[in-house]
Design brief:
Layout (H helix, E strand, L loop, with lengths): L4 E4 L9 H8 L5 H9 L4 E2 L2 E2 L11 E4 L21 H10 E4 L3 E6 L31 E2 L8 E7 L2 H12 L4 E9 L6 E11 L6 E4 L4 E13 L3 E8 L6 H8 L8 H4 L14 E9 L6 E5 L4 H10 L14
Length: 326
């Protein structure tokens, strides 16, 4: 790019944050360089100085200065996503549970991070080109699951749908049900867990704990079945969306999720069972944001949880409609 150019904001980009606009249209521009261009006034919107979190409106004129290629020897920012490998393409397409013109739902496997980070090179966000199908746009993440949690994950196929789904998640205008296998047996058949949760620890070692001054976290639970005092199958419905909420709440009852060493320590394991996390986003139900009618997606259990269910002779049908009266 050798000279100043001006670009109008399209209808599809209406309401988008400016930093997201640049990420979509100039993916080679690193965030640090974008911030410098904004601070020095070289990037402007309708002739005015703006910040990276400014939301641009349809028809606004963005001034884009000449931008030279970055000196990569002085830039430690992670590189731009590369095309997904053939095996990842096949694996992701196999994971699709539902697809229409606006939404894709996949059954995220345990062990796959949703987004990249320190020492995380293989992640879902880096593979989403595999799910473009015939669309020109790349699917967008609208929520997350922990790396070791499996189950239903929604993707928006365009920006308008992404905004609608993000709003639905923020307003809690949907029903999310998780299945968990926990060590031990809760005292009550069902209940509501309410606590204040705050983050402790630094980046890469962060952990959530119940603490005064934290954010309110609420989870409804129902014990679907149990194997004496050895283990119990819980259906969980989070009313809020705090980080690691279900893991913290299960541990707070003295029944940590099997495989969750972070919150259950050595007590989070049962001899003879996989040491992988036994937490699964079983179903998600909401009013479809782009057409009339309801959307419900159900994800089958991953192999390690299916093996545990078979060992304890748990029957999936026992959990049908457990929260219908909620």
């Amino acid at each position: 790019m050798s000279k100043v150019r001006q670009e109008y904001v399209s209808a599809a980009d209406d309401g988008l944050r400016l930093d997201r606009w640049f990420k979509e249209h100039l993916p080679d521009l690193r965030f640090g360089r974008l911030q410098k261009l904004l601070r020095t006034g070289q990037i402007r919107v309708d002739g005015k100085r703006v910040k990276s979190d400014t939301r641009v409106e349809r028809g606004a004129l963005i001034r884009i200065p000449p931008i030279q290629p970055a000196d990569k020897s002085k830039d430690n920012t992670p590189a731009i996503k590369t095309a997904p490998k053939a095996e990842d393409v096949a694996f992701l397409k196999e994971a699709v549970l539902y697809q229409d013109d606006w939404i894709i739902a996949i059954n995220k496997p345990p062990g796959l991070a949703v987004q990249g980070g320190s020492k995380t090179n293989r992640h879902l966000d880096g593979m989403l080109d595999a799910l473009k199908f015939k669309s020109e746009e790349r699917p967008r993440l609208v929520h997350r699951l922990d790396k070791d949690t499996s189950g239903v994950l929604l993707l928006a196929r365009d920006r308008k749908t992404a905004r609608a789904l993000t709003k639905a998640f923020a307003s809690k205008d949907m029903e999310k049900i998780y299945w968990a296998l926990v060590v031990g047996n809760p005292e009550h058949d069902e209940g509501e867990i309410t606590s204040l949760m705050a983050k402790i620890g630094g980046q890469g070692r962060e952990k959530m704990e119940t603490a005064e001054g934290g954010l309110k976290a609420v989870t409804d639970y129902i014990r679907v079945d149990h194997a004496g005092t050895r283990a119990a199958w819980l259906a969980l419905m989070p009313r809020t969306g705090r980080t690691h909420q279900l893991r913290v709440h299960c541990a707070s009852m003295g029944t940590p999720i099997v495989g969750d060493g972070k919150y259950g320590g050595s007590e989070a394991h049962i001899d003879g069972l996989s040491k992988k996390m036994h937490l699964h986003a079983r179903s998600l139900k909401l009013d479809h944001p782009m057409r009339k009618g309801e959307l419900e997606v159900v994800a089958p259990l991953p192999d390690h949880m299916r093996e545990s269910w078979s060992l304890f002779e748990f029957d999936d049908r026992e959990a049908e409609g457990v929260f219908d009266d909620e």
